[in-house]
Amino acid sequence: MILHSAFRNLIVGVQEKVPLSNGNSVTYINLDNAATTPPMHAVMDEIINFSPWYSSIHRGTGYKSLLSSDIYEEGRDIIKKFVNADEQKDVVIYTKNTTESINLLSYVLAEKDDKQVILASDMEHLANDLPWRDKFAIDYVTIDKYGMFSLEDLEMKLKHYNGRVKTVAVAGASNVTGYKNPIHQIARLSHQHGAKILVDGAQLAPHCPIDMKGHESPEHIDYLVFSAHKMYAPFGIGVLIGPQETFQKQEPFCKGGGAVELVSHQFIEWSLSPHKEEAGTPNVMGVVALTAAIKTLMSIGMNVIDQYEQELIHYTIHKLTSVPDLKLYCCAAKNEDRLGIISFDLPGLHHELLAKILSYEGGIAVRSGLFCAHPYVEKLLGLTPQKLAYYHQKPELPFPGLVRLSLGLYNNSNEIDLFIDLLSEIAQNKQVYKEKYQTEC
């Protein structure tokens, strides 16, 4: 089976060669898209085209400033359309990334009322865990034996807290296993118990459609966050989308110019959101990059992207099952709804060493470790509290972890075949490679 990506020519750098340990060079194979994607040509072209017109926004009357301001504000409408946010009721707040978006929301929600419980889950990225811990009582929806979100446990915990849950904060898809969560079912359950839902869409946004649904829908997504750098658009911008009313009363998370209407030594009159939450000189270049990427993704069709990636996902998993000794941590369930994120372990080789061998021997980029989802990976690995305490007390010891490959719309089956061939070679000659590279770890 040969899977050629029709979108490969959209991406910058896919033909770049990188050096190997033997002095040769090969075409780089990037299987680390869940961390950061390479940029699109359309994004870089738009940045270059806009650069002569770049100017500070909102407070200038020059033509370039007015043009930059229009582009910055029009970006919000493009983003709303991309995820079907409400044009009137929702606001799009620009941030640095998903992590800052969730930190901002946690600050805002902590200021507003006395419901003090946040339900996250055992599978969350640390960005959707740590910001809640110092402001709320936080509890975690468990995962099942396959590592998937438990709707049953969510319902049980919502009933247990009897209306005290403010928000259910959940990943749209895991950055470890690739499992998609049933976000609209989670939303329905949450709303039935008086809670709102935040979806961390960092992994979903580049790969499949997201529909926030209307505010009147019981399956409405109240808050959505995602990052441009995982959507083929560098330049450091993310978004927080949510109802305008959420951000109206409290003081802003970040204070300064651009967030105010008028200030004296006696009073401060804050701007309305979203501007109140965007103090300082805004990242208009980031907006240009993100909107260019969104336009390209929408022109292809998110369903088209998802369909191609699903074929490549299943091809990859099938090939991985042929590698000797390999243990997969991402596909124990039947017909799971998933993204192209696959984590595995090769007993006898430490995860970091295996990732380095793939790079040094084949020019193949993967990720290794805990993927900023420490509790989730620790549970998948079966690390008991006693084992965790042991490693915590002995930081000099190599900590257990996994290797993760993650696919983008431009990857193809030829890259997967090269990856599988090298991985199989390593699996059958562990000691040889361990001796060759042991000093590298």
Helicity level = 25-40%
How much β-strand is present in the residues? Answer: 15-25%
Helices and strands, in order, run as: EEEHHEHEHEHEHEEEEEHHEEHEEHHEHH
Task: Enter the CATH topology name of the largest domain.
Answer: Aspartate Aminotransferase, domain 2
Q: How many extended strands?
A: 17
Could you say which overall geometry the principal axes of the C-alpha atoms support? globular
Q: Give the low-pLDDT segments.
A: none
CATH-derived architecture of the largest domain: 3-Layer(aba) Sandwich
How many domain modules?
Answer: 2
Corresponding CATH superfamily of the largest domain: Type I PLP-dependent aspartate aminotransferase-like (Major domain)
CATH C-level category of the largest domain: Alpha Beta
Tally of DSSP helical segments: 13
The pLDDT mean sits at 95
* Strands in their spatial order, largest beta sheet: 4-10-9-8-7-5-6
Describe this structure in words.
- Strand 7 (165-171), helix 6 (183-192) and strand 8 (196-200) form a beta-alpha-beta unit.
- The longest helix is centred in the N-terminal third of the chain and has 21 residues, at 63-83.
- The protein is built from 13 helices and 17 strands.
- The two termini are 36 Å apart.
- Helix content is 36%, strand content 16%.
- By secondary structure, it is an alpha/beta fold.
- The protein has helices at residues 41-50, 63-83, 98-110, 130-133, 151-161, 183-192, 284-300, 302-320, 351-362, 374-380, 385-393, 413-428, 430-437; strands spanning 17-19, 25-27, 29-30, 90-95, 117-121, 137-141, 165-171, 196-200, 223-227, 238-243, 260-263, 268-270, 327-328, 341-345, 364-365, 367-369, 402-406.
- The protein has two domains: 8-39 and 301-440, Aspartate Aminotransferase, domain 1 (Alpha-Beta Complex), CATH 3.90.1150.10; 44-298, Type I PLP-dependent aspartate aminotransferase-like (Major domain) (Aspartate Aminotransferase, domain 2), CATH 3.40.640.
- The mean pLDDT is 95.
- The protein has a seven-stranded mixed beta sheet, with helices on both faces.
